Amino acid sequence: MATEKQLDRRTRRTRQAIKAAFVSLILERGYEAVTILDVAKRADYNRGTFYKHFVGKEELLQEIRSEFLLGFAETLLVPYEGMDLVKAEDIYPSALQLFNHIEKHKDEFQALLSVDRSFGFELYDVLRESMRRDMHIIMDEGSPALDYEILLSYQMSAAMGVILYWEESGFKYSTSYMADQLIGLVNRKMDKITFKKIGLCQFQP
């Protein structure tokens, strides 16, 4: 008889197979053309199994979106746990984490963008809110006075522009190369960043 732990593992495996099948079908056919039966067949289950786990494809898409956004938000602070500040030129680890997360989940990323390109704005909002809540940028002494919210919006827009270019290019560059490029672009005038809250982001999509 299966234990509760084995059932949980089986449930996670089933849900993951359904998600993977759905993503692959979106990339092949487009979201609107994909049916529940298509997803169930691709995942090697029947429709009854699908409906045991998801109400429909809208709920399935929402769960994929929420999981991606949560992982994306959590990447920023992971490399700096226990630190009070870091020099701007030393934030490469968090930039690399962002690109690594996208590369690891690039099928989901592309599928979500194909359903709605405004998903890029959701990523932008996650980045900006995380920076606003958990960090504070300190500019070089002598830098011109800037409205902080405008500065933050500019920096996060630049980051998202680089990320979206990478996706549009078919991910032709390595994550380390993209992280190097992003740091070179956005950190030319920053001196250091102090952290207002240490630990993982509490973002709830």
- For this structure, the quaternary state is single chain
How many β-strand stretches?
A: 3
Question: Biggest sheet: strands, sense, closure?
Answer: 3 strands, antiparallel
Total DSSP helices? 9
Shape: elongated
Listing every helix as H and every strand as E from the N terminus to the C terminus, the arrangement reads HHHHEHHHEHHE
Poorly predicted parts: none
Strand order of the largest sheet: 1-3-2
Mean pLDDT: 88
Which percent band covers the strand fraction?
Answer: 5-15%
Broad structural category:
mainly alpha
Pfam family, one: TetR_C_8
GO molecular function, one term: DNA binding
Keywords: DNA-binding
Protein name: Transcriptional regulator, TetR family
Report what the structure shows:
It is a single chain. This protein has 205 residues and is mainly alpha-helical. It folds into 2 domains: 4-54, Homeodomain-like (Arc Repressor Mutant, subunit A); 66-195. It has 9 helices and 3 strands. It has helices at 4-29, 36-42, 47-53, 57-74, 92-104, 106-115, 119-134, 148-168, 175-186; strands at residues 85-87, 135-139, 190-195. It has a 3-stranded antiparallel sheet. α1 crosses α6, α5 (92-104) crosses α9 (175-186) and α7 crosses α8. The radius of gyration is 20 Å and the shape is elongated. Residues 35-54 bind DNA. InterPro entries: Homeodomain-like_sf (IPR009057), HTH-type_Tx_Regulator (IPR050624), HTH_TetR (IPR001647), TetR_C_Firmicutes (IPR039532). Keywords: DNA-binding.
